Protein 1
Amino acid sequence: MIGLVLRRAGGGALVVWLVASAVFVCYFAVPHDVARLIAGKQASERTVAAVRARLELDRPVAVQYLHFMGRLARGDLGVSFVTQDSVRAVIVRDLPVTASLALGAAALWLSAGLLAGVVAATRPRSRLDRAITTVALFFYSMPPFLLGQLLLFFCFYRLYLAGVELFPPGSYVPLTESPLQWARFLALPWLTIALANGATYARLTRSAMLDAFGEDYIRTARSKGISERRVVLRHALRSSLAPIVTQFGIDLGTLLGGAIVTEVVFGLPGLGREVVQAITRQDLPVIIGVTIFGSALVVTANVAVDLCYALLDPRLRRR
Amino acid sequence: MPAPAAAGVRLLDVRDLAVSFRTPDGIVEAVRGLSFGLDPGRTLGLVGESGSGKSVATAALVGLAPGAQVTGLALYLGRDLLTLPAEELRAVRGRGVAMIFQSPMTSLHPLYPVGWQIVEMIRAHEPVPTRQARARAIELLGHVGIPRAERRVDDYPHQYSGGMLQRAMIAMAIALRPRILVADEPTTALDVSVQAQILRLLAGLQRELGMAMILITHDLGVAAETADEMLVMYAGRALEQATTPDLFARPSHPYTRALLRSRPRLDAAVARLTPVPGQPPSLIALPAGCPFRPRCAEAVERCAKTPPLVAIGGDEGHDAACWLVGEGTA
Ligand SMILES: Nc1ncnc2c1ncn2[C@@H]1O[C@H](COP(=O)(O)OP(=O)(O)O)[C@@H](O)[C@H]1O
Ligand SMILES: [Mg+2]
């Protein structure tokens, strides 16, 4: 078990290192003189040279790379070209927004998706099953930005025009400041992500449950005279958890690195919107920093999924 | 032995059982017109090639054939299982009628410890504390021959061998001292050396608990050793029904005789199987007449009409569904 953890963590660190290296190449792949970019178009050659020296852009690539990795190892992600804020501070500032969005949406989609999937699987080919499958397919195939816009239009503008201010206009209030306001601001973004993702989970749960229902041990469970509810939840759903956990780990890890579309549509100051801004400003350290951070999250999620696997399935545990 | 039920009421009395499935290709008539009875302490051997409806017939009795349409009567101590309310039927499952299955490797939930699964069974029917149920699970496992049961109780199914898993299944099945044990090909998936042990274990438990048993098998030899009565099934129909000695002494239906010939003979230098030639028919839109007719060497014109299951001359309670063995012909 401990060996597995170490192996997975080692593999994960390797992936992050590869991503960081690839991102480092960006410094050289960009079509601009980075020093000129920072110093500004009007800056004199001397200023540009000074910037170049400060950023060590005049040193050999190998040295730059080593220094870059050294700083990374210490958790130093550099400084924004534009605002001169440390990238780490930017991430620390934006992460609570993105995490609020991701975790709230995850709770929603997980419960709704599992419920819909279980209900559909226990009544295969019934009208309810068909309805769930159709609705799931609808949200599954709808682009999130469109879904967000539609929710904004109907649940915000139309209600607002009608004098109902159920959801306040786009901004963000930290949970610590006012839990109610926090939830009101996030409700529509949560719904946007949860509807799209919940559809995936409903489909996933349904098919995994249907597979489980065909297993011999479900017949055994029924022959024991336990309640059907127990057969469904303790036996069939238990067997269906592995694929759901896999998907969940990847989804949550990806989302925590920034829910770009949803954050932009709803104007939430999270990591995703930060990256979009950084890209338009060519603020390389921020792009690079957030990218590396996001990849570390995905890798962590994958390691967590592997551990969950071992916890979920005794056959994978080694004594 | 449990006290006999009220006079005249049999433990199990199945009459004219029919099971069908609606499929995209048509209606599968898996079981047709099956009737049999069962008394405490007795064993009924249900034999026939694979696909003849043995599993479906017994599963349907306790509502375990999902998607099936079941008609007929299945009187368990006088109550019809086929019309019993769901909650009452649930109480019969496991406690009145317990089951073990063909493939022990897949019949236990792979993600729960063996003991947990026995505890679940006990607690579904009796409001005992978990600790007490667990002690009983250990006792049961020891009773069916699992060594160091107090340690193996927390093992997962993958840590057991096939034979041990079938023992664990049996321990679970007898946990509530059921009146009827349905053993659906309990040895088919096991090594030959283990098969005899499991059959001995079942026979011993049956004597000890006085339970009735329905032993499903496609191996006449297994049935011969264990069953008091036999029911030979083919394409969902009963072709011959008799006490075990009678069936072996006077196999009357050509299909029964073919099955007997297909038995591996231990006395032969090389155990050779003479399989029954041909394939069982499709159960969708089965034509009228004897279902075995296409494979029967003795078929005559009359076989195009369905032969009734009637007493053959001679043995009491020996029925066969064949025109050639009707009264006087045998
Ligand atoms: N759910 C089902 N849907 C359609 N046909 C089924 C279903 N279950 C069983 N059958 C059919 O019923 C017949 C009898 O099956 P079964 O009772 O398992 O045979 P046996 O146990 O004698 O080998 C088979 O032809 C099988 O294909
Ligand atoms: Mg079978």
Protein 2
Amino acid sequence: MNKLLFLLLLLGSFKAFSIEPLIIGSKSFSESLINAEMLAQLLESKGQPVTRKLNLGGTKVAFDALNHGGIHVYPDYTGTGYVMILKKNGERDPIKVHEIVSKDFLSKYDIRWSKSLGFNNTYALTVRADDPKFSYANKISDVSGKLDRARLGAPYEFMERQDGYKGFAKIYNLNYKPSNLTSLNAGLMYNAIKDDQVDMIVSYSTDGRIKAFNLKILKDDLNYFPPYQPAFLAKTNSFIKFPHLKAAIESLEGAISEDEMIEMNDQVDRLKQRPSAIARNFLIKKGLLEGSVTKSQKDQGILSFMISRKKELMKILGEHLLLSFVAIICALIVSIPLGVLLTRKKRAAQIVFPIVNTIQTIPSLALLGFLIPILGIGFAPAVLALFLYSLLPLVRNTYEGIKAVDRNFVEASRGIGLTNMQILLKVEIPLALPIILAGLRTATVIVIGTATLAALIGAGGLGDPIFRGVATVNSNLILLGAIPSALLAIAADKFIGLVGNAFVSKGIKLKFERQA
Amino acid sequence: MIKVQDLKKVFKPNITAVNSVSFELERGEIGCIIGTSGCGKTTTLKMINRLIEPTSGKILVGGDDALSVDAVSWRRKIGYVIQKAGLLPHLNVKDNISLLSKIMHKEKNFIESRVEELMEIINMPYAQFKDRFPIELSGGQQQRVGIARALMEDPPVLLMDEPFGALDPITRNSLHEEFWNLNEKLHKTIIIVTHDMDEAFKLGHKIILMHKGDIVQVGNKADFLERPANQFVEDFIKGQVHE
Ligand SMILES: Nc1ncnc2c1ncn2[C@@H]1O[C@H](COP(=O)(O)OP(=O)(O)OP(=O)(O)O)[C@@H](O)[C@H]1O
Ligand SMILES: [Mg+2]
């Protein structure tokens, strides 16, 4: 009896220690990060461990991840679900749009929408408040047909999506010249209008910089834009698996007013505060979390900034190294035999090289996009993409290196009685080594650079602060990722150069010197 | 010692490089294969070493049938030297000479003393040259290392394809002397392919003149000068001999 009790206790405690972490995602702009942080911290305060996959590269990446189980929950907007995912349009009433997405997502994807978190973050046509050209305008209709000299900046996403630029310009008769249209990173367009690089931007209505930069929103008087109410999305079974999830989300429903969200965005975008700190302060103020509010941080130099983030830096550096290392090792294991094989099989070379070449030309983001439906998000697809990118230099240099070996040396070796394998290992590879090593260096530099993109699919690495920095216009954050990744690439290149050189025979080096 | 019988090689699609070649050499004898470019000298030599599989014919060395064993182990029993020596640029002199012995896991002390002995024979002091790379040697020195490498496993037969072809006349002459004296000691059966009738007269106990894949005449210097088999042989000697 005692034994049984003990066993039960043991099982119980084992279970307590092994609670599956709930994976929270977000898109890569401040508001999404802040909202995701709020939920994460609430759950953590209830003892639910959380894994953060923030900075996912866009609606498609985040939604695919949720749908295929790469993340359990993330915040999105009713209008985005309505237009981009359901591909619907027409309805403008916030309650009706919420009803539609709730119903359709449940039946199609078994995904539930929470109630709105409170505010509405829609697109807004925005000008400088003190711009004399637009002093007369208060609503968008006021500028119809009068824009032949105005310059517009808009986020990439807006230029593409169904409720985006095309219909917008048509309904309001916005007669911009095509040469005056610029697609911009959403985080950067506010500085562009402030510095008079553009005259108008399609901003987000809750961005803090609208107030801070003294910008003016023109009213959407024809109701072109759908409502964009923020809410959390999660699969039905996640609510069963994670018992605290429902209550945590409910405590945020209707909790954030438009002014509060604008203020928090401003704290992050302009005043360079951390989203996690801002989210925490908000939860404390609302009585949802215990603790004391932290003071805002001063602007820091990059060096002291890096030192203050030492822990984060070590973590992402570790992730970056692991990603790059695994990819390169796998690529080496495949490429060297493949490159050798291709020197023996001319026909195969004619098939394999065009394929490997084509892979190299696929833009890295597109490649990641292809891999998400197959492998989900995170480490595996990131490594696979990096692996594919490093194939070309390695396979090609192995192939070319071995092809370049003088046939006389091979013939002489065969003549004295070496087998084909002995000729490969003792003659061809040592002679091709300098060229193979050059390929390895190229591949390593490519992989370390490209690995920054891994952050966009939740695989972490040095890209993580870079994309957060781009999203929040925080150059310290960008440098936190960019400087180490550049240094890492240089160091790895030099390291392989030095170590590899030790393996190259002195006889070959002398020969190179003689030729030079 | 070595007996070649009706050796024939037809390359794809239908190129008869060697039609019918037969000759014999005793132990310690040097045979020189000579003939115009493309007459099949290299092909004959490579067939004896089984770098090229004969279409038909027989090769016997000391009673062993070359075609009844596997090619790699046959090559290990035959010394082979190609033009420009074919020394491997990434290995130093010692490693070039001992490459095959190391692969065959011969004992280290044995390898060391054998290399040292061979380098004495080719007149390249061990201590001075063992660590040099091919690029640090003259053409004549490379050629000697090539010969030492071929002798490493003490093969009964040595095949050499234009071994002295790339050397200047003075070096070539002194190497001829050395080589002749060397074989007085070693007593190897040697086949040398050459373009040069002088060389053939000087080194060959037997001269084998080929033309278009066939043997035209086999004999010693006197046979060729006094009893040329036909007009072609006469012309060949006239065109080649400058004495
Ligand atoms: N692998 C091959 N495939 C087809 N034909 C070949 C091949 N190797 C040699 N031949 C042909 O066989 C003939 C004899 O070639 P071989 O190399 O034996 O000539 P050689 O007497 O050594 O000439 P050289 O004095 O120029 O070295 C030539 O016509 C050559 O073109
Ligand atoms: Mg030849």
